[in-house]
Automatic annotation (TrEMBL):
<protein>
    <submittedName>
        <fullName>Class I SAM-dependent methyltransferase</fullName>
    </submittedName>
</protein>
<dbReference type="InterPro" id="IPR029063">
    <property type="entry name" value="SAM-dependent_MTases_sf"/>
</dbReference>
<keyword id="KW-0808">Transferase</keyword>
<dbReference type="Pfam" id="PF08241">
    <property type="entry name" value="Methyltransf_11"/>
</dbReference>
<dbReference type="InterPro" id="IPR052356">
    <property type="entry name" value="Thiol_S-MT"/>
</dbReference>
<keyword id="KW-0489">Methyltransferase</keyword>
<dbReference type="GO" id="GO:0008757">
    <property type="term" value="F:S-adenosylmethionine-dependent methyltransferase activity"/>
</dbReference>
<dbReference type="GO" id="GO:0032259">
    <property type="term" value="P:methylation"/>
</dbReference>
<dbReference type="InterPro" id="IPR013216">
    <property type="entry name" value="Methyltransf_11"/>
</dbReference>
<feature type="domain" description="Methyltransferase type 11">
    <location>
        <begin position="53"/>
        <end position="148"/>
    </location>
</feature>
């Protein structure tokens, strides 16, 4: 059974384009999913335990990969079109969860009340990543973990310059996604210990290379 809590729209982006993105999101990612992303999601989420909160759950592409033994699953997603698809995917998978429309900048959770936070392809889209990371740190228990798959600014300078050149266009097209965000550096600056490996997001445009996959702790 799912429970809908307070909802809000993602600020600063045209609602009509967000509605279109909710329809196109899964088809756009389909090649990347079958080329390796689905396997990465499955492997990463085997580490989830206890009370789990996924920020920016989108259309629910992680749903099928959560272990059956998690105590509680809370999914946040600020965009209404995405939430509708998320509810349908939960129903298809028979997965109980709480859905919140609150953005990751202010999670409706008590301090130190969460064992695992999950972020897959989310920290590139939020307006204030440092604020989101501080919020994640707030809700995590002292031994809690942040599991993540994110695409980041490239270390290879020609690709990084390409990302910088097209960043504004990509952000408008991809619903606020910043293709050149140094997310792992931001995690460390916000006090997280990060254990991550690099990968290539096969089947996707080079502007979102490379990926980092890993685990961060407070």
């Amino acid at each position: 059974m799912t429970e809908l809590t307070c909802v809000e729209s993602r600020p600063g982006l045209p609602r009509w384009w967000l509605r279109i993105m909710a329809v196109l999101y899964d088809p756009f990612l389909w090649t990347g999913e079958i080329a390796g992303m689905r396997r990465r999601r499955r492997k990463l989420l085997t580490q989830a335990y206890g009370r789990v909160v996924e920020i920016g759950a989108g259309t629910g592409l992680n749903i099928a990969h959560y272990p059956d033994g998690v105590d509680e699953l809370v999914l946040t997603e600020p965009e209404a079109g995405m939430r509708r698809k998320l509810v349908r995917r939960l129903d298809r998978n028979g997965r109980p969860a709480v859905i919140s429309g609150t953005g990751a900048e202010r999670l409706p959770l008590a301090n130190e009340s969460v064992d695992t936070v999950v972020s897959t392809l989310v920290l590139c889209t939020v307006e204030d990543p440092e604020r989101v990371l501080r919020e994640i740190a707030r809700v995590l228990r002292p031994n809690g973990q942040l599991l993540f798959i994110e695409h980041v600014r490239a270390d290879w300078r020609p690709l990084a310059l390409y990302q910088d050149l097209l960043a504004r266009f990509w952000r408008a097209f991809a619903g606020g996604c910043m293709c050149n965000r140094p997310t792992v550096d931001l995690m460390r600056a916000c006090g997280f210990d990060v254990d991550a490996t690099g990968a290539i997001w096969s089947g996707m445009p080079t502007i979102v290379y490379p990926l980092v996959v890993g685990r961060a702790t407070r």
